[in-house]
Amino acid sequence: MNNSFEFLSLVLDSITDHIVVIDETGEIQYVNKSWIAFGSNNACLIDYDWRGVNYINECDKASALGDEFATHAGSGIRNVISKKEENFYLEYPCHSPAEKRWFMMRISSFQILGDNYFVISHQNITERKLAEDEVKKQARLDGLTQISNRRTFDNFLHEEWRRCYRLKKTICLAILDLDNFKLLNDDYGHQYGDDCLIRVGELLKEFANRPGDICARYGGEEFVLVWGDTSLAQAKQLSDQLLHKITELNIQNINSPTEDYLTASIGLAEMVPNSKNGEIELIGKADSMLYKAKDSGRNKVES
């Protein structure tokens, strides 16, 4: 190794990013101390001597096993080496059994005595990614109940409708309204009402466990549940169980004309998506059943 490269290695060893230097063929010429430490701490098959290993070939091996990030990385490195791109960067997950991790890979070129080399750095961006994911998560949730909000529900129903259309499967929608909730708020105060909504939201999560299910706050004291690939009979059974669970919460509503505790009414509808209908029709049918449940005494499911 010439003196220029030796000086460069001193600089790179002082950097906390994981860094590897390759030549124009992809063969590794140098890795810094941070790279070696990461490999050793993560049971890497090559934990110290990387000389003779071809970085691009390793990307290709991972790509052949279906790693799409390795595919992008290999392509980006080749583009920088061939001067199709001046530099390249890629954000990718690198989770361990104990924690979630993300890194940003960057590649740039440099010359030593007329020979071309390429620095590939891997910077840990886990803290930023976790913060971004939390922001996205909060944007999808209702601020009070911490279940899905109206916008998330609308998007989910649209996609689930399309899925059930392709598969010719049924989809059920339940709209739930808490009976005489205004009286509860007036008698016990809005903090009591908010606590009630939070407890109902937590309960609803028990009834939306599959990828084709969702529970969401629809607005005010109204909630919705979607059950994809579910028959009306199955959805009716779930809805009856849900009403029973709500009464078991034993939330007092002393002046309610229905019962002296919190109850709910549910409108339930089923459709098989086709080219002549849409999710708006399903919402309309469930809403119509909800009004029927309320008009016929509340605390019941109409479907």
TrEMBL record:
Keyword Aminoacyl-tRNA synthetase: no
Enzyme class name: transferase
Keywords from the UniProt entry: Plasmid
A Pfam cross-reference name: GGDEF
Entry EC number(s): 2.7.7.65
Catalyzed reactions per annotation: 2 GTP = 3',3'-c-di-GMP + 2 diphosphate
Domain spans labelled GGDEF: 169-303
Keyword tRNA processing: no
InterPro entries: Diguanylate_Cyclase, GGDEF_dom, Nucleotide_cyclase, PAS-like_dom_sf, Rev_trsase/Diguanyl_cyclase
The protein, known as: diguanylate cyclase
